[in-house]
Amino acid sequence: MADTPAPGTVRPGGRTARVRETVLQTAADVLAEAGFEALDLAEVARRAGVGRTTVYRRWGTPGTLAADLLDDMAAQSLPRTDTGSVEGDLRANARLVVETLTDPRQGRLFKALIAAALCNGQAAEALHRFYATRIEEWAGCVTDAVRRGELPAGTDARRVIAAVSAPLYYALLNTGAPLTEADAHDAADAALAAARAGVWATAADQHR
Questions:
Q1: What's the CA angle centered on 135, arms 133 and 137, to 5 degrees?
Q2: Which of 46, 134, 147, 201 has its CA 20 to 30 A from that of 33?
Q3: Secondary structure of the chain: what % helix, strand, coil (to 5)?
Q4: Confidence of residue 7 (pLDDT cuts 50, 70, 90)
């Protein structure tokens, strides 16, 4: 007998796909409006105009629903910018992070999803997948820069991209200071300076 897929992991098409899209959009609205603690499956079903049984059968828990939303966001995220220079690419990445986090709806949504990840294992795993997907997408700007000779050989592209967004998320979650385009450029430039200095390059590759 075949194993039954875990709630929220099936990706069927047709009407079921439309129901999923509607429920995920509604879940995002609830998270942005009131946070993870307000993500009640019965209320999501009511607002989405979907049968409660369908929502409980498909997702089962608020954590599963939040995780599915994160996976959907990762699948639909935009491709990286290619400006032709590593400085331009990293600044574009940082500006995208700032624009997302300062957007009235998206900023609240990400805060809610981060909160969900702190108290729910499924949401935490999905948040890790989301950022791994985004870092992998933008890592190409670093590998391109290495190929062009702008950065040392062996530079760890994923660590550079993570270093761009890290201070921006820190500011969002810990300092409460409003993020600006200047903050984006500072974060990108600091990561670039470290990358140029070989902070994320292996010694063996640097001396080849």
A1: 70
A2: 134
A3: 75, 0, 25
A4: very low
Measured from the Cβ of residue 176, the count of other Cβ atoms closer than 10 Å reads: 7
Q: Is residue 155 classed as helix, strand or coil in its secondary structure?
A: strand
Q: Return the bridge partners of 201, or none.
A: 155
Q: Is residue 201 classed as helix, strand or coil in its secondary structure?
A: strand
Cα 119 to its chain centre, rounded Å, is: 18
Distances (CA, A) of 17 to 23, 26, 140, 208: 10, 14, 31, 51
Asked if pLDDT for residue 206 goes beyond 50, the answer is: no
Place of tokens 């699948």: 75
Give the total residue count for the chain.
Answer: 208
In the block, tokens 């966001």 appear at: 73
Q: Which two tokens stand for residue 158?
A: 């994923």
